[in-house]
Amino acid sequence: MLTLRLLGKMAVLRDGEVIALPRSRKTRALLAYLALAARPLSRDHLCTVFWDLPDDPRGSLRWSLSKLRRVLDEPERARLAADRERVSIETGALEIDALALQAAVARRDGAPTETLERLAEAGALLEGLTLPNCLDFETWLAEMRETARQARVDALGELLRRHGDAPERAVRYARLWNELDPLNPEACTRLIALLLENGRAQEAEQQVELARTRLADAGMSVLGLDTAWSRLRASGRETAVETVPTPSPAPSLPELNLDDEAYPPLPSQPSVAVLPFETLSAAPDRQVFADGLTHDIISRISRLRWMFVIARGSTFTFRDQAVDVQTVARQLGVRYVAQGNVRFAGDRIRVDAVLTDAMTRNELWADQFDRKLDDIFGIQDDISIAIVGALETEIERAEQQRALRDAPESLDAWSAYHRGLWHMHQFKRADFDLAESFFARAIALDSHAPRPIAGLSFVHFQRAFLKLDPDFEGQIQRALELGEQAIALDARDATGHWAVGRALLMRREYEQSVDALKTAIRLNPNYASAQFSLSRSYFAEGSSELGIQASDIARRLSPCDPLRFAMLSVKANCLAQMGRYDEAVDWVVRAARQPNAHHHILAIAAYCTSLADRDDLAREYLGRLRAAQPGYTVSDFFQAFPIRQPEHIELIREGFRKADIGA
């Protein structure tokens, strides 16, 4: 039997004997990634996750797979399956502790106590393993570690329930739960109560002081802890926690019910409250910074006309209070709650921010911003822009996911619009047809909403851009008309100006395109799609440096954007335009690895690698282009990518000639 231990230090055992793992951290990480995926993964996807920049990512993948075969395979059994396109591990032939933990927690009462104990105490997922230069892997790892941590918390809750009459074991479980969730008041209170029940008052007091320090370091209020501690001391041994909390993963929690007439109803559009950011410092200037940051975030996010934002006067009534997000949601009538804290250390400042869906307590986003205190107003501006950009992206994504769960016939205008957005970003002919139908439904339900009309404009734009309709000019004209219609409905909504700016570029009206996109950004400085579109227009007119700047801003505002492949490719275009061919190759290779990259990206990859004399890569991308879009020509490229300057046109033609792509 082969056993894969992912909880704690990674190990592989065959019949109880430890097998030497490859020394390469990336190869060990690949093993864990494949094992937890439990399904075949494409080679392109694995290259994107683990080898974002090397010249030969597929060769690097082959090398790692050869090392893993020595660990996994036996003469009579091949556990690692790989063909030219996909790779997988036969998990049925493996015992994987991380998956066993999830299964044990799902069984609850049915799981043996010994199994729950062993898995709950095993340690964090892939302890000590990190790949700092592989952002996609690190993001995945953080999510998997949180899932495993939550499963361990659930297991400990069940063990506490089973061993309520075994004080020493109960204290051990409560202590481990508190270590796993040190900022959870319930975990802390449970441990303190058990210590008091068992006559260990000094330990309980030490635990309270430790909890106070942890909460203070995290910028959180200690009011709730102090209240619980006073109550526990007052009631002595008679005080016990009546029910053992057994937290479940966020997705399984029931949604908050706001039907009570005592609370304001949820508005039809997404609703958010930004609570005052906390600071541990008593210095007035530091509290002023935290208040100013909160004010900036509220002001900036209020410019998003599709979002319902609670005013500063209401949210600041919760200042200096230990609040619960669902309580805030009830009182203010919102779905989303954003909050955070500010810490100062010497000449450094750290801001932590988090966004929660209060209906489910599901944490949608969290990030940390570290800056040097050299320009206090510049720092406040920089951090507030970054936070608002993230809030907009994550709330938009959450709304799309909610819309996908609803039956089509039950969709309101807002949900139909977001269902259309999801299909629009699949970049396939059938999905564009579905997107059009959902946008049309949204318009029929609310004819005064500009965003579904701008979405419909984007559908017509993409049909022309991807040559899905023979009437190129007609599609672009329709895209322009719909964009203008969206502006007429609400000139202060950025999406209409964005739609017009994209259409004007395809008509080779370069200055007008830039002006329209700048207007969209002025109305919504956090609009990543507008920044990306502006980078395209700058590339088209020959302003390469400005194009790179706009592309970088777009990726910073939306690092996981469905248009990430395009954001990467426009930077490659600009670098090639400036003669920096080797740099262009690095960026276009990353673009071509994105899962939804279309055939134009392969064409850009072919001409950029040819200009850099990377003939091997050029041949690879040429082959992929011909498979994806037979008969692709230089004319197809210039129809989709208007270029203003003759010397830039000739440069691209030269790249295509070297790549053997005809006119």
For the biggest sheet, the summary is: 6 strands, mixed
What low-confidence regions span 5 or more consecutive residues with pLDDT below 50?
Answer: 237-262
- Quote the beta fraction: 5-15%
Please state the structural category.
alpha/beta
**C-alpha-based Rg, rounded:** 28 Å
Q: Judging from the principal axes of the Cα atoms, what is the shape?
A: globular
Key features of this structure:
single chain; about 675 residues; alpha/beta; 6-stranded mixed β-sheet; 13 strands; about 60% helix
Give an account of the 3D structure.
The structure is a single chain. This protein is of the alpha/beta class and 663 residues long. The protein has 28 helices and 13 strands. Strands 8, 9, 10, 11, 12 and 13 form a 6-stranded mixed β-sheet that branches. A 4-stranded mixed β-sheet has the order 3-2-1-7. Strand 11 (336-345) and strand 12 form a beta hairpin.
